[in-house]
Design goal:
It is built from four helices and ten strands; from the N terminus they run αββββααββββββα. The protein is α+β, with helices and mostly antiparallel strands. Strands 1, 2, 3, 4, 5, 6, 7, 8, 9 and 10 form a ten-stranded mixed beta sheet that branches. A hairpin with an 8-residue loop joins β9 and β10.
């Protein structure tokens, strides 16, 4: 009787082992655990936060509302002064054209891309709407404006009081300051 129990027990083990999951190619048990990558993963952005290179919000120019999605920044000359230039656009600027766009805005002025162009220096802030070319200047009125580790961020909310409501903007942005734009200024001087 003991032999029958031992044989029955062994038979049960063999049967249960044959029903376990096997990998078809190696005849090894399939691992159901997923392994974490050894590389560090970037921290996910908090809800409502922008990543570098992003803009959110809109501007209105003569009744046309433009949604802005992209943010670029670099140093360039405006009005005879070195300025931090920030471009917020509705379409992406091709990577090989960003330095030239920061320097002289050929795509924005050519109506290929719509957006806002900011120039910030020690005298204040200037903003131009593209393609309409409407401009405003004054003291720096950006909220939460910060330049840190070559990243510029800010919020601009303007209800259009100077233009009788024809031009307004409500935007938020985070942009990396382009290094090659600084070289362009230094070569010219």
């Amino acid at each position: 009787m003991k032999k029958l129990l031992v044989y029955g027990f062994c038979f049960a083990i063999v049967v249960s082992c044959s029903f376990s999951k096997k990998s078809p190619s190696t005849n090894q048990p399939v691992q159901t655990e997923t392994k974490q990558s050894a590389l560090p993963q970037p921290a996910p952005a908090q809800p409502g936060e922008l990543s570098v290179g992003q803009a959110s919000g809109t501007y209105t120019a003569k009744g046309a509302v433009v949604e802005l999605k992209y943010a670029y920044a670099g140093r360039a000359e405006r009005f005879g002064t070195e300025s931090l230039v920030i471009l917020l656009t509705d379409k992406p600027i091709p990577p090989d054209a960003v330095a030239e766009e920061v320097k002289s805005t050929p795509l924005l002025q050519g109506d290929k891309i719509r957006g806002l162009e900011y120039a910030i220096d020690e005298n204040g802030m200037w903003v131009r709407y593209h393609p309409s070319q409407y401009q405003e200047s004054g003291t720096n009125k950006l909220k939460d404006y910060k330049v840190e580790n070559d990243i510029v961020r800010g919020v601009d909310e303007n209800e259009g009081n100077l233009s009788g409501g024809k031009y307004d903007r409500k935007v938020k942005f985070v942009a990396s300051i382009l290094k090659c734009a600084e070289k362009i200024i230094r070569r010219r001087t």
